[in-house]
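question for whoever is on the cluster today: can someone run the full assembly for these? two chains, 564 residues total. i dont have access anymore since they changed the login thing
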Amino acid sequence: MTAALALTDLRKTYDNGFTALKGINLSVQQGDFYALLGANGAGKSTTIGIVSSLVNKTSGTVSIFGYDLDTQRELAKAQIGLVPQEFNFNVFEPVGEILINQGGYYGIERTIATDRAEKLLKQLGLWEKRKEQARTLSGGMKRRLMIARALVHEPRLLILDDPTAGVDIEIRRSMWEFLTDLNESGITIILTTHYLEEAESLCRNIGIIDQGQLIENTSMKSLLSRLDTETYVFDLVEPIDQIQEMGACHFELRDPTTLEVSYHKQDFSLNQIFAFLNQQGLQVASMRNKTNRLEQLFIDLVEGNKA
Amino acid sequence: MNAQQKWTAYYTILIREVLRFSRIWIQTILPPVITTALYFIIFGNLIGPAIGEMHGFTYMEFIVPGLIMMAVITNSYANVVSSFYGSKFQGNIAEMLVSPVPNWIILAGFVSGGIARGMAVGAAVTMVSLIFSKLYIEHLFVMFTIGLLTSTLFSLAGLINGVYAKSFDDISIVPTFVLTPLTYLGGVFYSISMLPEIWQKISLLNPVLYMVNGFRYGVLGIADIPIWISYLIILGFIALLASFSMYLLNRGIGTRS
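^ ran it for u. tokens below:
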């Protein structure tokens, strides 16, 4: 099957001499929900900029659903919907017009674009605001407007550059649901985000860019399986003063009702730990991961690349 | 994109541009009308009778075509430079750049928006001139085509300024220090036959002179320059600026990093 996005030896050196990309090779399959992660300045936005034609590449090739961005530019561009990091609509234009105009740039007739705009604005909870200038929208509404605008021409590949930045948790969750539904409907999604929890819960595959290079490109499951240490925090029902050790499993009492447990996955299982706690007469009210697992891996990989 | 889709894209940009300047008509249409009315009152009504006839017309009648052209030139330019730079400043130029719309349609859309405002203001100023003077139309085709072509030329110039502009200062420098002097010295208020010979020759280097005289020929049937030279100069500049604009858009200068 043709890849939704294929980058071959993509390089970019800016006029000031800064090399942002040092030969990126990447293939994102059709229907994938792909996370592209990297620290600030790693090269994510440059990569997205090149794919969406906002940045001129120095060399390499970009293919979108088999259409070469250099030689089949119009066809390639028609496949993409872009949700950039910064708000970049005309804040003085009414919300509905922003969507209808965007459809127009893709050659979609006004009547059809109007119908699609209505559907998207209703789906994203913006229909009541359709006649208001975009500057009157809240931050969360502006984010949703950008998503609606990117979808009005029904792209096959949706690229979202940190789409939930500055959005409250409730709206973020509803956006996750919306994006999951989109992906399930067949749209390939590439997501960059600073919320690694977002990438972990939404994406099937992941690429990590560091210093202009793709240092990881694998499935989320495979990446997370590499994390050999787990740390859980248990909230105890009854307070305790101390706890016995259990071999190489490390217990740390944060406060009388909060117990932190760290262990190597190959040495222990959660069942063994629960059995041990039962033996000690301890009851667990709730538990959670101490840190985001992907965050830990991300830091390890980027640190490893620097070393 | 097929021809129908390209037409839709062009039409979208044009409608967007027309709506933009129409929504803020108090800033875009009204000021040039008031300014030109003041010119008519001061130069035409108050000072004009002291100057006497120019080529067989009253001074008021003589300056009407020049003032209409001045309004067309400044407003065509201002519309495109402010709209294009505004799109860059807010980032919404990206809406077009990520889409499959070809650069020549982006150019045509912005330029058509400039023409729409230039012609709208030109028409409004012409209406105002009827309060002060009789309007002659000696050569309707010449009057219309010179107005349209001049508007096209300055819309293109506005786009180039918008491409290079990096701040709001940059979009006012050219109109203030280049466009206004060229327009005022382009024969709006006088015939170059009134100037000493050396200044007549220097005036011929001013492209605005050919536009004002071409338009005056269409309205009054008189001109300091043969009409075919006016057409030649205007069309030559249009070809030059359109080619340069396409080069800038294709290379992504000022729009892509």
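summary bc i know u wont read the tokens: Residues 169-184 of chain A form the longest helix (16 residues). The interface with chain B takes residues 14, 49, 52-56, 73-75, 77-78, 80, 82, 84, 86-93, 97, 100-110, 149, 153 of chain A (CB under 8 Å).
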